[in-house]
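Exercise: predict the fold of this chain.
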Amino acid sequence: GEMVDRFDLTPRTLRFWEYKDLIAPIRDGQRRLYPAAVVARIDRIVHLKAMGFALDEILALLELEAAGDDGVPLATRMQMMRNRAAQLEQEWERNAQARLRVALERLDLQKAGAADEPPAVEATGEAA
């Protein structure tokens, strides 16, 4: 429960990460104990998820981080970050194009006489 609250995760997520070998809490019967190293790893996973990395990529990054800084892991991690940045740029461009299409569609609708305001909502929460 403490990890769920601390990182705004679900118990199912933590169990899934454990199943995927991303984390290894100490098992005490049905309870899971999270030593500082596991808590730090959860924090790192949350951080990498926020960057949009998939769980398999996160596992690879965590393994590279654990391998040390002999040059190869650093270069590989840097390449993974460059790849993610390029993916984000492509997503940003697709989103920018989609926003432009939506804006043009709204403009066409306004020219056709549609009001550009949200529909009235009744107390039931349904559109009027």
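Check your answer against the key: The first strand starts at residue 26 and ends at 28.
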